[in-house]
Structure formats: structure tokens, C-alpha cells
Amino acid sequence: MIVILIFNLPLINVVMTSFKNNATISQSPPPLLFVPTLRHYYDILTSPTFLFSRFLTNSILIALFSSMITITICLLAAYAIVRLGVGSPLLLAFVTNLRAIPLIIFAPSIYVLFKQFDLIDTRTGIIMVHILVNIPIALSLLVSFMQDIPKEIEESAHLDGANRVQILLRIILPMISSPMVATFILSFMYSWNEFLFALILSIKKATTLTIGASLFITAWGVQWGRIAAATTLSVIPPFVFAFYVQKYLVEAFTGGLKE
Amino acid sequence: MKFSLIFGLTTTFFELFLGFLLAYFFYLKFRGMRFLFTLLITPMFMAPSLFGLMNRILFNNFIGLIPGYIKFFFGIDLDFFSPKNIIWTLVGIDALQWTPFVFLIIYAALLGIPIQLIEASSIDGAGTFHKIRYIILPYIIPALATGGFLRFLESFRVFDTIYVLTGGGPGDLTTSISIFIYRTGFTMGDQGLASAAGIILFLLMMIPVLLTIKLAKRRW
Q1: Which residue has the higher pLDDT, B80 or A57?
Q2: Which of A27, A153, A183, B19 could make a disulfide contact with B102, Cβ separation 3.0–4.6 Å?
Q3: Quick one: DSSP state of residue A218?
Q4: Among residues A194, A180, A90, A85, which one has the least CA distance to residue A139?
Q5: Which helix (H) or strand (E) holds A134?
Q6: Which residue of chain A has the CA closest to B60?
Q7: Integer CA distances (angstroms), A233 to A72, B64, B209, in order
Q8: Euclidean distance between CA atoms B177 and A102, whole angstroms
Q9: Which ipTM value was assigned to this complex?
Q10: For residues A45 and A40, what is the distance between their CA atoms, to the nearest angstrom?
Q11: What is the largest CA-CA distance in chain B?
């Protein structure tokens, strides 16, 4: 019980801080009971200098598009790998193990490349990188799910005169729809939580929430209440999703290396 | 580089240890378990950068809950961000976020142990310690290895948390390899040096990656 409390202490504290007014925040020791205020939420949502709503739209759009494209690519790739035998097991292992490599290695080269193509500070650029980051995980998951589908079903469909595309869309897709949703949500969460590339590839226009929240540490001093409010709002979406995909999580985290 | 190595090793050690204790505790089953289970793994879902921010608030000298109450109860002015303590603060924060992940892996492995084995050992009169040492541990070694390996890789390349918490400072005391590359490449604008460091790191990391591919092939 106490252990659980310790693990959730940062979260509890940040939610509490977000409801305190500035005077209460700086009291020592921090009071546990206080009059809650919505000021900081109001501030970050309306402040003209701090574009919280833009960060929010950026985050949502980037996460949504990158995970959608990831899923589409990985679905086709997984089908090709499992059923058509494209690529060797070694190739798959190589792709899925890419995520063991520190992402920072790619950062300088991607930055230089994107600069040439004018992709810095655009959502498109960040979406592209996030797809790259997400593919290894999504692919390893989808491949393992697809391997569980019995081959006979497909063969009988083939006898009935269905072609490859029809098989994929009418038979495979409905069968793996729930794991696919889980994979989608996981990629969404990864993209939402990604920090490094969102940091180096955005200047002003394409900033996401994870970066935005840390922007409050300004030269004038740290605006704790606002940081707390922004952080609280930013962790809500992954949370809602997380509860939905809990049972797939172990597989997702260990998947690539266990195979 | 040195910091990355130390950081990676200590966090992995702490997380494996705590994760195992927690997993064993949950394995013994108690009331209200499902609900607590969900609460326990929540830190995993948070963005590391946001989790870092939260801890920055939690451990802050002036407004933090923890230093505030330590001062209130014990009268000690504990500065978690002073050069002496900073590494342990970071290790602690990393452990706070990722122990649940190790816990999850080990817990899944514990559930895979055939229950008859443990019952049989109880009948033979094995104590708790013997049970853990001779039955449970051998069974979960693969899980420990996977979890430890993943955690080591992740904390070796740690970026988000440290960037948000200290930015690599004070000085370059907490500059992990990722932070170093970021600094040279983007703060100081030396893309060439950053790329070179990246390539060296890449070659270093290829060793464990190739190793796992090899291990995986053997199992096929």
C-alpha cells in the first residue's frame, strides 16, 4: 500500500500543485489541505504567449497521423513477412532490434537532412520521424499476432476465389482487429510521449505538449503552478489509453527481444 | 560516458531488486490486488519528460513536498539537486518510473511457475528463503535477464528525464551520452563531432543487438 503510494507520489503531488494558488505553492512545508483553484488551468488555456492549445493540436495530430501510417505500413509488412515469406527471420530481427539502439544517434543526421528539405519545425517532419520510431515495435507485435492465425482459414478463402487483397481486408483484418487497436494505441502513446525528436525538430510551430510543458522553465523563474497544470493535462490521454491496453503491455515491451 | 555506464548499471540493479520484491509480494496474493496492480504500473505510461517535470516539482528545494517535510520533521536542509546528491536523485527517479516495468515482466514469469512445484516443496518442508532460492529464482532467470537487459539499454541512453531535470549539469556531472551528443550537436552546433560520437555509440550498441539476434536464432 505504502509502496504504491510512493510510486504515485509524483503524480499525486503534481495534481495537487496544479490546483494550488501561487501563495500556497511557496509555503513550507507544503500544506496537504488547501482551497483548490482552477487559475493555472485557466491561465495556460488562455495565455497569449504560451500557446497551449496549439501544442495540444500538434500533439494530437502528430500522434494520430504517425500511428495511423505506422499501422498501415506494419499491417502490410507483417502480412508479407508471415504469409508471403518476404525477408528472412534475420531481417525481421534486425528491424525489431533497431529500437535497442539509442535514438540520439540518428538525431544529427536527421536534423541535417530535414534542414535541406525544409522539414524543420513542421508537423510532417515530426510525423515522419515518429513513424520511424514506432515501426519496430508495431511490426514485431503485429507479426506475432498474425502468426497465431491458422493458415487453413486463409486457404479455404483462397479456394473460394478470394484474392490476396480480399483475404487481407475481409478475413485477416477482422480477426486481428483488437490486437491491432492495441498496437495503434501503443504507437499513439509512444508518439505522444516522445521527447527527443520533438525537441530538436521543432522551434515554434510544431512544438508538442511534452516539450511545451517544459517550456515553462523560463528565464524569469519557474512557473510551478502552470507547469503542474500543463503536465496534468498532458498525462491524461496516455492514461485513458493505458488502462485499455494493459494486458498487451508486457508483450509490447518485451516483444521485440523475445522473438 | 562514464555517467551513462554508472547510471545504467545502478538503475538496472535497483530496479531488478525492487521489481522482484514487488512481484513476489503480488505473487503471494492479497485483497484488493487488481486495483493496486493498476495503480502500481501507472508511472510506466507517463512520458519520461513529464515524469521528470513532476519530480522536479516534488524534489524542489523551495516548493517540493519531500524536502519540505524532511525539513519539517527532521530539521535537515536536504538539497536533492546539489552536486553531491544529484546522481542518486536521478537514479531514484529512474527507479521510481521503471521499477513497475521490471515488476510486470517478473510478475508474468512468476505466474508461469507450475504451482505444484511450490506446493511440493512446501510439503518437503522448504522455508520461504529456500523456496525463493532454489525454485523461484531459477525459473525467472530468463525474465530477469530480459528485464535487466532492456532496462540497461534504456537507461544507458537516457535523455528525456535528465534533460528536463538537470540539463546535464551541474557542469557535466550528469551528462549522459545522449545529452552529450545533443549538446555538441545542437547547443554548440558541432554536427560533425556529434555524428562521430553517434557512430561510436552505434558501434558499441551493435554488440548487444547482434548478441540478441544470435541468441534468438539459436532458439529457433
Answers
A1: A57
A2: B19
A3: E
A4: A180
A5: helix A123-147
A6: A224
A7: 29, 20, 37
A8: 10
A9: 0.70
A10: 8
A11: 68
